[in-house]
Amino acid sequence: MSGPTVPEHVRRRGLMLASISTFLAWALEYYDFLIYFSLIPYISELFFPKSNPLAALIYTLLVFAVGYFARPLGAIFFGHIGDKYGRRNALLGDAITMAAATVVIALLPTYSQIGIWAPTLLTIFRFVQGFGYGGEAGGGVVWALEFASPKWRGLVNGVLNSSMSVASLLATGLLLLVSAYYPIGVVGWRILFLSGAVVVIIGLIIRFAAPESILWERKREEGRIVKIPLATAIRRYWFSLILVILINLGLTFVFYAGYGFVTTFTKLLSSYMPELQRAFIKLTYLPLMLGSIGGIIGNTFGGYLTDLFGRRRMLIIPTAILLITIYPLYLALTTLSIPIMALSLALMYFIFTLSATVQTAYFSEIFPTEVRWSGIGFGWNLNAAIGSLAPTFALLLYTSLKGGMNPITAAALAPSIVVMIGAAMTIIGASIGPETVRKQLE
Q1: Which of 71, 186, 189, 249 is deepest in the core (most CB within 10 A)?
Q2: Angle 265-346-153 (CA atoms, 0-180°, nearest 5)?
Q3: Distance from C-alpha of 178 to C-alpha of 172, rounded to nearest angstrom
Q4: 218-237 pLDDT tens trace
Q5: Residue 10: predicted pLDDT
Q6: 8-432: which CATH topology?
Q7: What average pLDDT does the chain have?
Q8: Per-residue pLDDT reduced to its tens digit, 177-220
Q9: Where do the domains of the chain lie?
């Protein structure tokens, strides 16, 4: 936190409450993402006709993407409120939107009950949910990091980003637990979505007690709040927006076509491996649960390392390693050995999170307070809209490749190619950007 006039107890209280509530809200976002992806085989059967399973899978992935296309709109709306009227007010609004939409999705009737209205309603409320996520992605971390000391900003950022991996552990663990007592395709999927809403409601209650960002309050007192923050960000900080797009879109492709494609990957393999088909849940979700531990370590450790070695270096080196190793890591999943699969996923997630955890701290340091939320939120969520199509790109690439090679090899190669493209984008963005470690936020 910059400036000597900030009372230490106010900064600490703000950092604690903002961090906890943002951790929980981000956990819901990634929990929802992972639950949706984990349930793709079931959602495709519940909400779409069963006559064409591959088409149902593609439609299910496209509905997932619809929520992400709503995110730039949410980023513009909540980012404008956050930069102009205060961080806390905007974050209360996006948390309520996320929680309400998640509850409604959990209660939706299926295709067998109401026909075409089922996928229609699912699409509508995925859009509403994505609108709320558009405010949270970028906004929550801005609020928390504006309380953090420059010396430990990367570590605080790493702990916040570990919510993604904690959500993965929670999502896969709950899925295994719920599947042991309830049929996933009947009532289990509803329980899983409702569980995520509980998390964000707790975060919402904490958010009510948290203070406004002192940096934003200072800008308001100085009369430096701009009329249209996003327009100012685009006009004056266009290079920073380019960096956000290159780095974050690249990492979005890496995550969605890498770790996020695993359940679709194993579903494709099950057509050629009867043993996987017989034990789909065990051979898919147990390795994912164990693999998420690598992400928790990578996020926190990456946050610590970026404070020591700088933002750019920690964006470039792990991403380059993943570019080289992603294909063999995917091939390891075809062994159907739970220890080998879990180790492969843990390494994949660990390497990814070493870089991914850096980006939100870096982006906060390349924008000033008066446009920080709008600049980060718009760039981040525009990338999310495009990047959410990465699994669909991988699936379409698989359909193209499988005719000319072993289909199991094609299933591993297709997502690996998309990951490599994303990794290259991130490396380019980090290479042309400035170093910002220990920078005082303006």
Answers
A1: 71
A2: 120
A3: 10
A4: 888 888 888 999 999 999 99
A5: 67
A6: Growth Hormone; Chain: A; (1.20.1250)
A7: 86
A8: 888 888 887 888 899 888 888 877 888 888 888 888 888 888 88
A9: 8-432
Phi, psi of 366 (to 5 degrees): -105, 5
User: Of 114, 144, 101, whose CA–CA distance to 11 is shortest?
Assistant: 144
pLDDT tens figures, 266-285: 888 888 888 777 777 788 77
Q: What tokens appear for 135 in the block?
A: 């405010």
Mean pLDDT computed over 151-178: 84
- Please list, residue by residue across 285-324, b when 16 or more beta carbons sit within 10 angstroms of its beta carbon and e when fewer do: bbbbbbbbbbbbbbbbbbbbbbbeebbbbbbbbbbbbbbe
Runs of H (alpha helix) within 182-279: 189-209, 214-221, 229-236, 238-257, 262-269, 274-278
Q: Token pair of 77, please?
A: 């709306």
> What are the start-end ranges of the H helices in 39-86?
40-47, 53-69, 71-85
Range of weakest confidence among 281-290, 323-332, 345-354, 378-387: 281-290
- Could you give the CA distance from residue 164 to residue 401 in angstroms, rounded to a whole number? 32
Residues of 328-349 as b/e, b for ≥16 C-beta within 10 angstroms?
A: ebbbbbbeeeeeebbbbbbbbb
Structure tokens at 341: 């699969």
Using alpha carbons only, give the angle 133, 255, 373 rounded to the nearest 5 degrees. 35
The two tokens of residue 167 are 């959500």
